[in-house]
Amino acid sequence: MHRNYLILLLCLVLSACGGQAPPEKKTVLLISAAASLKESLQEVKEQFEKENPSIEVQMNFGSTGSLQKQIEQGAPADLLISASKPFFTELSKKGYISPSLQMDYLGNELVMVTAKEDMEMKDLPEAGKISIGIPETVPAGAYAKEALEYHGIWDMVEAKTVFAKDVRQVLSYVETGNVDAGIVYRTDAMQSQKVKQESIDPESYGDIVYPAGVLERTRHQKEAEAFYEYLKTDRAKQVFKKYGFAILPAGDEHVD
């Protein structure tokens, strides 16, 4: 009788286990994005995952130049949101970005940030060290150099400029007092309670454009397109606006 009881108990356990459906396997989507998008894109990702529970979104943040090199060297990625139109266009011409799934999505502005005292561009030659991103790999650094040249002070400040790997490092240098001033995107300055910001004449540098696109080599075409289209929804756009980005006409196409 004891043996029969054990057999019955085993059958009940097996029956209970068999009645449970295995957990659904999620599709993992990898997005490479400019470092200046960290907070805003993280919030959009969380919204998207709630509405699409079968998709898990992972982020790879970095300077646009380093992201470009990663993609060219074969690193996995399904979408790219770049902070440089020229870098993005180069990848597109080389066949890395889907021609029909790319758009100029966001806009931004430059500001000068200081931690100790108010300062304007004309004051930089008399200041101590300043910081900008590496112009060759960090779009914000290229725009900053362009603005400094426009104001005729690049030759005066180049020797005392600390070049950073991305725009967030520039902000950190200013916050910690390692430099007297830095040039970053307005959206980055908005994330700090430790710096003062001064607008920079937008005529002194080119249009700051963040293109977005699906990579040709994605293995998750359906899911990548779903996130790409989600970027056009009012829900996503409101998040980016909250963080100070402008929505460009291509990204302003209405999608629900």
UniProtKB/TrEMBL annotation:
Annotated residues for binding of molybdate: S36, T64, A140, V167, Y185
Protein keywords: Coiled coil, Metal-binding, Molybdenum, Signal
Signal sequence annotation: 1-21
GO biological process: molybdate ion transport
A Pfam family per the record: SBP_bac_11
Coiled coil (residue ranges): 31-58
A GO molecular-function descriptor: metal ion binding
PANTHER family the record matches: MOLYBDATE-BINDING PERIPLASMIC PROTEIN, SULFATE-BINDING PROTEIN
Family, per entry: Belongs to the bacterial solute-binding protein ModA family.
Protein name from the UniProt record: Molybdenum ABC transporter substrate-binding protein
Species of origin: Metabacillus indicus
